[in-house]
């Protein structure tokens, strides 16, 4: 998990009438100074590239894989931790930080190997797909799984990734790994979610730990189910089929 605590409220004030995100290349010495100061302050964290921010005098630095962004002074001595919002001239707000995270999440999920997922596909045309970080012992995971036939009927492909809520050294891990190690993974996952008595069998080189770490460290999964929509936006919990269909625009 990230080494920076999640803010409970927005940090700092909303900045009025911000322009578009700047893409200018950052001076190499400024970038070096910022990275050095941050690494000295918290050497356990991992920092991304230094970017210009829409606010003059502040620079953006992704931390711990991009789940969070720091807005840092040019000398690296101060930073703001939280999301950056744009106040539109005509009214309304836009979360610039979340827009960037959404784009990045979509690219990350698209880069994953679908063969390592347990996929429930429509019999006809696939109109959209969702990624679901799931656990076999979670009530709302079961509720969502019961909706899968209806989602498939409506053209939505469900791509499951494993996220044992109790961690990698737990009975929950052994249960969900059994599904990923089964000859018929779809049938076994369904049986486990239905609380059927399935003999537990964990094979070597299964992708559960990798998917768990992806959810934990990159996507910032905080509970199950966590749905990652096709555009990279995240739904932290259950959605009924009609709401899901509307959200996907189909």
Automatic annotation (TrEMBL):
Domain Thioredoxin-like fold, first and last residues per copy: 123-248
Keywords tagged on the record: Disulfide bond, Periplasm, Redox-active center, Signal
Signal peptide start and end residues: 1-24
Keyword Transmembrane helix attributed: no
InterPro entries assigned to the protein according to its UniProt record, in alphabetical order: DiS-bond_Isoase_DsbC/G, DiS-bond_isomerase_DsbC/G_N, DiS-bond_isomerase_DsbC/G_N_sf, Thiol:disulfide_interchange, Thioredoxin-like_fold, Thioredoxin-like_sf
Cellular component annotations (GO), alphabetically ordered: periplasmic space
Matches recorded under CDD domains: DsbA_DsbC_DsbG (cd03020)
Record bears the keyword Oxidoreductase: no
Domain Disulphide bond isomerase DsbC/G N-terminal per the UniProt entry, residue ranges: 28-93
Localization in the cell: Periplasm
Pfam families: DsbC_N, Thioredoxin_2
The protein's role, per its UniProt record: Required for disulfide bond formation in some periplasmic proteins. Acts by transferring its disulfide bond to other proteins and is reduced in the process.
Sequence similarity: Belongs to the thioredoxin family. DsbC subfamily.
Protein name (Swiss-Prot/TrEMBL): Thiol:disulfide interchange protein
The organism's taxonomic lineage, starting at the top: Bacteria, Pseudomonadati, Pseudomonadota, Gammaproteobacteria, Cellvibrionales
């Amino acid at each position: 998990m990230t080494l920076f605590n999640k803010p409970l409220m927005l940090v700092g004030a909303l900045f009025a009438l911000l322009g578009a995100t700047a893409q200018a290349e950052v001076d190499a010495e400024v970038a070096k100074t910022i990275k050095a100061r941050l690494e000295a302050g918290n050497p356990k964290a991992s920092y991304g590239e230094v970017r210009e921010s829409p606010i003059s005098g502040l620079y953006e630095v992704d931390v711990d894989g991009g789940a969070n962004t720091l807005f840092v002074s040019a000398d690296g001595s101060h930073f703001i931790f939280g999301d950056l919002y744009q106040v539109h001239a005509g009214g309304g707000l836009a979360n610039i930080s979340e827009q960037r995270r959404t784009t990045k999440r979509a690219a990350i999920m698209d880069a994953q190997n679908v063969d390592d997922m347990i996929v429930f596909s429509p019999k006809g045309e696939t109109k959209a797909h969702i990624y679901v970080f799931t656990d076999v012992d979670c009530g709302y995971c079961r509720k969502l799984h019961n909706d899968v036939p209806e989602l498939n009927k409506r053209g939505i492909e469900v791509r499951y990734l494993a996220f044992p809520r109790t961690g990698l050294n737990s009975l929950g891990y052994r249960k969900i790994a059994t599904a990923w190690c089964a000859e018929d993974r779809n049938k076994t996952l369904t049986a486990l979610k239905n609380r059927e008595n399935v003999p537990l069998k964990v094979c070597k080189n299964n992708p559960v730990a990798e998917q768990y770490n992806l959810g934990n460290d990159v996507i910032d999964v905080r509970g199950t189910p966590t749905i990652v929509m096709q555009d990279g936006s995240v739904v932290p919990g259950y959605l009924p089929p009609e709401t899901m269909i509307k959200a996907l625009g189909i």
